[in-house]
């Protein structure tokens, strides 16, 4: 009898805690280092031990992370289209507000376009581009009457490279992050929610190393294809997993494939997420895609076009925001290879937070990033003050710094995995979680 109960309990545990990959939205992501069953390995157990691994195979061997197993019931399935969970009252309440804004404004109340996989062949679109649909003609400036801010496509400082990496955390990013650390170079990282879920310890390294984290949706698909509630969920749960695992609530996002229009921008605005596109593409993500013939030489050339721009006057008054990826080992090693020439050509290479003078790039106001002047002056570290209550209206710009009692991020992790308060959003209700591991231990003890 007891063995039967044990088997049933094991099956129950597996069914509730193991989250495997189920494929993903685009060819770009299909080539990343896939994860698998999170229960397969019990180490590493913390950010530092994960960051110390040098072997790529070991880095990308799935592991279990207890706080995440507890959070599993609060999230959609990884790599599948997100939807608002029926019992998520905070998400439902916030979506209700945003939904009213969308439906009451003709500029936002637009029909979805295309498929989540990026097939737009059936889309009948008006050539005047009133929706400011980026894939159409690269629109990044919504009409003034929409009240929407322009997308960010450049940095306001001349001869300055706005540095960012999309699609992380990549399980094998230690070599890249080690390199950035050696160079005292911070970056903005656009994290996919499902990747944060799959590789929580790798994602925590971004905060430990002082990088700037933005949202890159839950499942990395074409956002304009989704209905309002799904587009909301794609942003909401990506932002929330970053909060739960990294302890910060981002205020910026990048649409996968640049696929955004005014409806999606308005939903992002409702979540306090500023839209960041790019001015230049290294095309690193295209190498290895059998549908296009892009080679390493093409990527080198694309990098060098941007590098030359630093000497031919292209970036005299504003700097580029360049599309780089931590998508796979090629894209990461390509950046490392090109970095010396970038560094010698550009006066500054800075993360988006520093470039935009976002000293408070998260809802959590006690986390202070250096502004541009401080960053280029050599003060690249993030400071973390005493935790304070934050508000939904938290601004990215120049709120008074809270420097007292600050400590370097590198001196102590700010990770708050398992934290259940939703700072800055909704009612502040505590999210309901079940400590399955503890429950099973108790049940086993009882049965045995
Ligand atoms: Zn991407």
UniProtKB/TrEMBL annotation:
GO biological process, one term: fungal-type cell wall biogenesis
Pfam family, any one: Polysacc_deac_1
Compositionally biased region (Low complexity): 395-418
InterPro entries the record matches: Glyco_hydro/deAcase_b/a-brl, NODB_dom, Polysacc_deacetylase_ArnD
Enzyme Commission number(s): 3.5.1.41
Signal peptide interval: 1-20
Stretches for region Disordered: 395-425
Single Gene Ontology MF annotation: chitin deacetylase activity
One GO cellular component, as annotated: plasma membrane
Keyword Mitochondrion: no
Compartmental location: Cell membrane; Secreted, Cell wall
Protein's name according to its UniProt entry: chitin deacetylase
Species whose genome carries this gene: Tremella mesenterica
Taxonomic lineage from the root: Eukaryota, Fungi, Dikarya, Basidiomycota, Agaricomycotina
